[in-house]
Design goal:
The protein is 13% helix and 28% strand. The protein is of the alpha+beta class. It has 2 domains: 77 residues, LysM domain (Membrane-bound Lytic Murein Transglycosylase D, Chain A); 109 residues, Glucose Permease (Domain IIA) (Distorted Sandwich), CATH 2.70.70. β10 and β11 form a beta hairpin. α2 crosses α3. The longest helix is centred in the first third of the chain and has 10 residues.
């Protein structure tokens, strides 16, 4: 039962007081996390015992591959508290679980955040003259571990940096592919080639022609699939290539996912 003082205060404030939004206090289940270099949504979800979907929903991010900025503050919801927009009615847990399951986390080998290699990365150059028709990260057909650069059949494919050829042959999904190892644990991948022009063990310089653009493997148009990896993990090449990026209309049918 309400005390007389509380009842009197509610009468004095009028009917709006009965519907006022509660003020967050010490029991507020939400926490804040300040994004640090190397943070990803997958890592944060694992750290706090949540799903990526829960963090995406709590912060109204565009999706599971949203870019995080160093210093950005994220709301970390309680694992036991449904996340709802202000003024909306929280969904029952049973209804929320299928929605969360629909957001697939990225494979462990894909790093979605902005890399910080502290100057260790080579000065990568564009491997082919063309436009980006498919970007790194989430696609309707699955996760994409590189970018697709569209170019006519036979366009030269060039080494993005100096290194040693560690693979030159056919691989499932990739078709004819060349892989080059660079200093400090970096590797680049050039796939769907029409012809490979280098062999395993060859030393190549940045800009040296290593292949010709084709559509071998799982590809539906002529392009080069390009990846940049470091210690086994794939990073968004657009973060490591010179600006400006050369985008065309994104075409998710250029190849099926390699995952």
């Amino acid at each position: 039962m309400l005390g007389l003082a509380t009842l009197g205060l509610m009468i004095a404030l009028g009917p709006a007081a009965a519907h006022a939004e509660p003020i967050a206090g010490p029991r507020d289940p939400q926490r804040a996390h300040e994004v640090k270099p190397g943070d990803t949504l997958t890592a944060l979800a694992k750290k706090y015992g949540l799903t990526v979907a829960a963090i995406v929903k709590a912060n109204r991010l565009p999706g599971p591959d949203a870019l995080l900025r160093v210093g950005q503050r994220l709301i970390i919801p309680s694992p036991d508290t449904p996340v709802a927009r202000r003024g909306s009615v929280p969904q029952p847990r049973a209804a929320a679980r299928p929605a969360a399951a629909a957001v697939r986390p990225p494979p462990a080998r894909l790093v979605l955040g902005v890399p910080d290699f502290d100057g260790a990365a080579p000065a990568f150059a564009w491997p082919a003259d063309g436009t980006v028709i498919s970007t790194f990260g989430s696609r309707r057909s699955g996760w994409h571990g590189g970018i697709d650069i569209k170019a006519p059949l036979g366009t030269p494919v060039q080494a993005a940096a100096a290194g040693v050829v560690i693979a030159s042959g056919v691989e499932a999904g990739y078709g004819l592919v060349v892989k080059i190892e660079h200093r400090h644990g970096f590797m680049t991948v050039y796939a769907h080639n029409d012809v490979n022009l280098v062999e395993v063990g060859d030393r190549v310089d940045a800009g040296e022609m290593i292949a010709l653009v084709g559509r071998t493997g799982r590809a539906t148009t002529y392009h080069v699939h390009f990846e940049i990896r470091h210690d086994g993990q794939a990073y968004n090449p657009l973060y490591l290539l010179p600006l400006p990026p050369r985008f065309a209309q994104v075409d998710e049918t250029s190849e099926r996912p390699h995952e």
